[in-house]
Amino acid sequence: MSNWLASLRKGYGKKLHALHAWNGWIVVVLTISGLMLFGGFWRGILGEGRVWLRWLHIVVGIASLLPVAYYLLLAGKHWKQLRGKAAQRANVIVVLALLVGWLLSGLLLWQFRLIGPAWSNGALLTHDLLTWIGLPYIIYHSITRVRWLKEEPHRRTVKSGKPEEAIHPAASPGAVYSRRAFIKTAIGAGLAITIGPSFLRWLGNSIGAGTSIEKLVESDANKLLPVPQPLPASLPPTGGGSRGSFRVYTVTPIPSFDNSNWSFDLDGLVENKMHYNWEQFVKLARSVQVSDFHCVTGWSVYSNTWEGIPLKQFLREAGVKAEAKTVKLYSGDGVYTDSLTLEQADMDDVMVAVLHDGKPIPNDLGGPVRLIVPKMYAYKSVKWLNRIELIAEDHTGYWEERGYSKDAWV
Ligand SMILES: Nc1nc2c(c(=O)[nH]1)N[C@H]1C(S)=C(S)[C@@H](COP(=O)(O)O)O[C@H]1N2
Ligand SMILES: [Mo]
């Protein structure tokens, strides 16, 4: 054994203790920041803070490599010490596997631009799955390890150090559950009840077995009439039906619309300003395209069949003035905006979409009308789109103001 390793192992017990504590705090910080990043609820509240929180999560996540590496140096001795303690050995392996799995999938997610959507999808799935399994495990582990649960009350008075059984040979004979086992079971059941349903929902959606898009369509709170009738290319969907599921993202409460509060404007530096109500809007000629949808946070939905009005067509009809440089996009939520350069807006597949897989886009997913920019990350795909303005200057959109790149190419 080299000298430095020997010196490293000096005061081993204390070091192991400190390591466990450090690791615990790192997990707490990563859990809280991770859950806040995951939860749709926090998106609106955090705003710009989300970019900072994401950085904190990444930096602390990478820092978690330190206690893991340090532990591995001490692991040999610890392992011997745990001889005959199968449960504790298993615990060490589970926790190490969790930490390494989170770290690796997290690194991939951090570098999502390098690895492309397919890999980052897998990484996100792994990261989330580890969280669904690992977090309840760690919570259970920490609760059941606190001292008052580890020791039966009468045992605390025993000073001899002899095993409990030797002193209280008849301690609760015949009792199937000791108090401790009962509390542990209760904690386990409590966790299963609180976390189980959301886990199953997530699992269903991730595997694609869930009918989540259909459910969203069913619970659509928009009430716009007449209902747009799909083109033959849209129903049945040319793309064969989308694969994957959308995570409902919003920075505001989710709005809903009816004929009285919905309208669509095309204005700014154009020859013919346009104002449509819903009855007029559904009469516009639409076309159909099949494309993939990628969010920068790592998830994608493949082979979406979108039906709508190509942005190009709108701009041609409105007549863009020579001074115009930027297409500014407004959401009916009153907060979210983004923009495209005229050149980007001229791409054939940029669409003001009205139907997804032959059905009206539900309000959760940005309906009745949302933008689709297949070649760019989905933060360009403004939900509840209700105004397009041509402007002479630049515009920095909602997420771009908060650190996202203006260059959103997939
Ligand atoms: N109005 C509005 N549009 C938005 C967003 C938003 O928060 N508000 N989020 C964007 C982001 S980051 C993504 S990934 C997609 C998500 O679309 P979905 O909620 O339909 O899955 O919408 C984009 N358009
Ligand atoms: Mo996104």
Automatic annotation (TrEMBL):
The family database entries (InterPro entries) matched by this protein are listed as: Di-haem_cyt_TM (IPR016174), OxRdtase_Mopterin-bd_dom (IPR000572), OxRdtase_Mopterin-bd_sf (IPR036374)
Q: Where is the Oxidoreductase molybdopterin-binding domain?
A: 253-399
Q: Which residues cross the membrane?
A: 21-42, 54-73, 93-112, 118-140
* Top-level taxon of the source organism: Bacteria
Q: Which keywords does this chain's UniProt record carry?
A: Membrane, Transmembrane, Transmembrane helix
Q: Which GO terms describe its cellular component?
A: membrane
Provide the GO biological process annotations.
Answer: respiratory electron transport chain
Q: What is this protein called?
A: Oxidoreductase molybdopterin-binding domain-containing protein
Q: Which organism is it from?
A: Paenibacillus nasutitermitis
